[in-house]
């Protein structure tokens, strides 16, 4: 069953997913970053965010961007752990899954397969038929990602195999 339509939700960082939006997404292999390192970075970012409560929304947004870049830099620095995406056959499976929904759930603007993570740029405007309403069968970003990563996240769409 599709997730309820939400424009904003928050885990460690805020996630905005306006219907018809263009999204840059990074996802990584499980255990690609040691848990100690993840916890250290998360704690550091939480402490810094707490200290920045007085900042304007624009300054907070800039800090969030810095956190995303720091997390990406951490992924790039890792020298151990799973690097399954270096294997051509596995990378091709991921590419096929990404391309499977292109033209149906999103316009694929670009992607980059790294040894332990993937960058993806998609535009979901293709799902909107007008500027007024969100279609009942609109598939949100978290469900698109579930489909790409192999889960059956959207039973209401005929694209699920």
This entry's quaternary arrangement is single chain
The global form is flat
Distance between the termini: 14 Å
Mean pLDDT: 81
Roughly how many Å is the radius of gyration? 17 Å
> What is the helix/strand order?
EEEHHHEEH
**Total strand count, please?**
5
* Helix share bin: 25-40%
Largest sheet: 3 strands, antiparallel
Low-confidence stretches: 153-161
How many domain regions?
2
Structural class comes to alpha+beta
Number of helices: 4
* Fraction in beta strands: 15-25%
The main sheet orders its strands as 3-5-4
Q: What would your notes on this structure say?
A:
The chain contains four helices and five strands; from the N terminus they run βββαααββα. The chain folds into two domains: 90 residues, no CATH class; 43 residues. With 161 residues, it is an alpha+beta fold. A hairpin with a 3-residue loop joins β1 and β2. The C terminus is likely disordered. The strands form two sheets. It has a three-stranded antiparallel sheet, covered by helices on one side. Strands 1-2 form a two-stranded antiparallel sheet. 37% of the residues lie in helices and 17% in strands.
